[in-house]
């Protein structure tokens, strides 16, 4: 039996481990926090919004995020200390601005497929959790 290590016990890590176990692999999940889903998954408050899967590299969003950088209560923060990895990531991020619409559509389609797969896992296993399918109201 092959062994696989998964780093991170968020939604993606736990789901990947689950599927790999079903395929017959011995899986170990490593998480630096005391409990699963306390980092990235936690920041989303457990919200699974497949149709709200918009990418962030749109000029309007970038300008809004730039204004947030100096606010203490900002919903988005980034360490302003320069380093090569961050600079190369930022350049690649900015070069994707022209692909905003295409990338958003692909991301939304992938999210909808993920939601279908999540429903299949729930149906196949009978997993019970505090879930609501009532939708989200956006006010503009």
Oligomer: single chain
Instruction: Determine the fraction of residues in helical runs and give it as a percent range.
Output: 40-55%
Q: What is the molecular shape?
A: globular
Elements, N to C (H/E): EHEHHHH
Number of strands: 2
Helices, by number, come to 5
Output the structural class: mainly alpha
Mean pLDDT across residues: 87
Largest sheet: 2 strands, parallel
Q: How many domains comprise the coordinates?
A: 2
Instruction: Give the DSSP E fraction (strand runs of 2 or more residues).
Output: 5-15%
Poorly predicted parts: none
Give the strand order, joined by hyphens, for the main sheet. Answer: 1-2
Describe this structure in words.
With 140 residues, the protein is mainly alpha-helical. The protein folds into 2 domains: 1-46, no CATH class; 49-140, no CATH class. It has 5 helices and 2 strands; from the N terminus they run βαβαααα. It has helices at residues 11-22, 40-43, 59-68, 84-95, 100-125; strands spanning 3-7, 26-30. Strands 1-2 form a two-stranded parallel sheet. The protein starts with a strand and ends in a 15-residue tail after the last helix. 3% of the residues are buried. The mean pLDDT is 87.
What are the defining features of this structure?
140 residues; mainly alpha; 2 domains; 7% strand; globular
Question: Summarize this, please?
Answer:
This protein has 140 residues and is mostly helical.
């Amino acid at each position: 039996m092959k062994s696989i290590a998964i780093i991170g016990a968020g939604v993606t890590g736990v789901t990947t481990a689950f599927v790999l176990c079903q395929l017959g692999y011995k899986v170990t999940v490593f998480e630096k926090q005391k409990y699963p889903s306390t980092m990235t998954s936690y920041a989303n408050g457990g919200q699974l919004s497949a149709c709200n899967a918009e990418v962030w590299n749109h000029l309007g969003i970038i300008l809004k995020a730039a204004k947030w950088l100096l606010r203490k209560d900002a919903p988005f923060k980034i360490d302003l200390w320069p380093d090569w990895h961050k600079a190369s990531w930022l350049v690649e991020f900015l070069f994707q601005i022209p692909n905003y619409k295409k990338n958003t559509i692909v991301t939304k389609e992938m999210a909808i497929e993920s939601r279908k797969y999540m429903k299949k896992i729930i149906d196949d296993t009978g997993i019970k959790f505090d879930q609501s399918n009532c939708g989200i109201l956006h006010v503009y």
